């Protein structure tokens, strides 16, 4: 598998199929925070995101963790209190992903990485043999970096 090619591409985190992940042997998911679970520069997750994560946690036997290079959100963000989180994590360093695996208690081949970063999430997860899911959030504003990401994703879909 090419190092930057995701195992799966979804338009939104809400499109992730937990049943399919469980059938594939996934027991843990590493979520990116900014631009994956929440819009960039947003102080917290939306009510619909909180509900989706709560439902996902209760429905599937899949452990969750947030791993992000961004700074921790402000105090009182209940989502971070419900899911273990590593902030200022230095993705795509291998030791960051290994720390997440230790917290989850899962192996590389039974863990998925979900995020919008081609380098930080896809490359970081793929080089360790993890299942990777690229999320292209609708709230991402078109910019040159966004345009390049979309071009790369389009090329990788072939």
Task: Characterize this entry briefly.
The chain has 158 residues and is of the alpha/beta class. The protein has helices at residues 18-23, 47-59, 78-82, 94-104, 118-126, 144-156, and strands at residues 8-10, 28-31, 63-67, 85-86, 111-115, 131-135. It is built from six helices and six strands, in the order βαβαβαβαβαβα.
Structural features, described:
This protein has 158 residues and is an alpha/beta fold. 36% of the residues lie in helices and 15% in strands. It has helices at 18-23, 47-59, 78-82, 94-104, 118-126, 144-156, and strands spanning 8-10, 28-31, 63-67, 85-86, 111-115, 131-135. Strands 1-6-5-2-3-4 form a six-stranded parallel beta sheet, covered by helices on one side. Strand 2, helix 2 and strand 3 form a beta-alpha-beta unit. The longest helix is centred in the middle third of the chain and has 13 residues, at 47-59. The model has no long low-confidence stretch (mean pLDDT 85).
């Amino acid at each position: 598998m090419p190092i930057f090619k995701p195992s799966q591409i979804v338009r939104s985190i809400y499109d992730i199929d937990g049943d399919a992940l469980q059938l594939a042997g996934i027991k843990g998911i590493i979520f990116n925070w900014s631009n994956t679970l929440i819009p960039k520069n947003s102080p917290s997750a939306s009510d619909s995101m909180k509900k989706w994560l709560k439902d996902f946690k209760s429905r599937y036997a899949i452990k969750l963790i947030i791993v992000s290079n961004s700074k921790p959100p402000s105090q009182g963000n209940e989502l971070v209190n419900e899911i273990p989180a590593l902030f200022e994590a230095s993705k795509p360093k291998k030791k960051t992903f290994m720390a997440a695996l230790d917290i989850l208690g899962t192996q590389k081949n039974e863990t998925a990485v979900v995020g919008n970063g081609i380098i930080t999430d896809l490359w970081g997860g793929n080089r360790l043999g993890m299942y990777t899911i690229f999320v292209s959030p609708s709230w991402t504003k078109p910019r040159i970096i966004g345009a390049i990401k979309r071009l790369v994703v389009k090329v990788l879909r072939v």
